[in-house]
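Quick one, tokens below. Sequence please?
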């Protein structure tokens, strides 16, 4: 290694500054997990959830709160959802209730949801992994885990500036998670899994419109997710 290389390396390290980065978790669960969090109303649900080529006036305010300025009047929704993963990999029942409304130049929304999530079935686990201490703790390896309850809440507020054709908005959504679909598949033969955690999503959006069919949107998102 030459002295010139060493001097160059020292100068680069001395002038280095911290840089911001993005953390992208690696998915290792072979289950389509988005169904667990997919309970807001949508016009394109039957089209596979397409969102780039088709506008979705029902779902748009929840993806970018500034688009709530397009709402006229008030909208209420309460659409129970049920799904089941094939091969006994789990199921869930969700009941969301919410309202999005506009009053003058102000708009906002509130939504809450409760969810019962059943983990996958793991029958005959005691033959693969014996658990002598399970009966004393009231655990039966031959039966699936109990249903876990999750809670979700969202609040949104924004304002429209008609003269400029601009609307801005912000939203806060929180989830208390006691069950994550597919996590049990990472622990084959386990007797009891007790997840616990939360998710927090903060969004600030802006929308600029020029007549019909022309618009520019911007969105700033801060998302935190942690489960033990």
């Amino acid at each position: 290694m030459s002295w010139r290389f060493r001097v160059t390396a020292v100068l680069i390290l001395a002038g280095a500054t911290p840089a911001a980065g993005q953390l992208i978790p690696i998915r290792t669960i072979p289950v389509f997990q988005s169904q667990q969090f997919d309970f807001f109303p949508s016009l394109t649900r039957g089209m596979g959830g397409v969102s780039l080529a088709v506008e979705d006036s029902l779902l748009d305010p929840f993806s970018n709160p500034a688009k709530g300025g397009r709402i006229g009047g008030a909208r209420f929704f309460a659409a129970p959802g049920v799904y089941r993963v094939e091969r006994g990999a789990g199921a869930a029942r969700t009941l969301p209730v919410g309202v999005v409304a506009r009053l003058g130049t102000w708009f906002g929304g509130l939504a809450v949801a409760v969810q019962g999530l059943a983990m996958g079935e793991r029958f005959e686990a005691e033959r693969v992994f014996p658990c002598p201490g399970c009966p004393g703790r009231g655990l039966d390896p031959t039966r699936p885990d109990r249903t876990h309850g999750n809670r979700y809440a969202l609040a949104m507020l924004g304002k429209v500036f008609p003269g400029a054709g601009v609307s801005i908005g912000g939203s806060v959504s929180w989830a208390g998670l006691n069950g994550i679909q597919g996590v049990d598949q990472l622990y084959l033969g386990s007797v009891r899994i007790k997840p616990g955690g939360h998710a927090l999503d903060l969004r600030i959006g802006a929308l600029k419109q020029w007549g019909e069919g022309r618009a520019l949107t911007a969105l700033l998102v801060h998302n935190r997710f942690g489960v033990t």
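Residues 123-127 have pLDDT under 50 and may be disordered. Strands lie at 74-77, 81-85, 90-103, 106-118, 148-161, 166-177, 197-209, 215-227.
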